[in-house]
Amino acid sequence: MNTVAATSESTSLSFSCQLAAFGAYLPTEREDVNVLLAPDEKLLGCSSYVDESGQNPSRFEGAAVMVRRGECSFQKKLENMATTGAALMVLVNSEDALIPL
């Protein structure tokens, strides 16, 4: 189990986390990354994100996208985030326990 801390000018968060047992290797050295919320109303990441021209929104390129657990599979959420060019997905659990992925 790991602890992650995020700080902005007005907010500081710290939460328990664990890496998924699949996907790309994540380096242990610190690297700044832009963290964005999933763009759908419920923040679930269950929809494909394309703009009116059919292009993926460039604001997600290389960013971490935070999505909530629920309504669709973890795989579907990952696929949707991957199509945006996001560097990683942060899955927010609705329960206190960590879930093995």
From TrEMBL:
Residues 42-96 form the PA domain. GO terms for molecular function: peptidase activity. It comes from the Eukaryota. It holds the Pfam family PA. Keywords: Hydrolase, Protease. The keyword DNA damage does not apply. GO terms for biological process: proteolysis. This is Subtilisin-like serine protease.
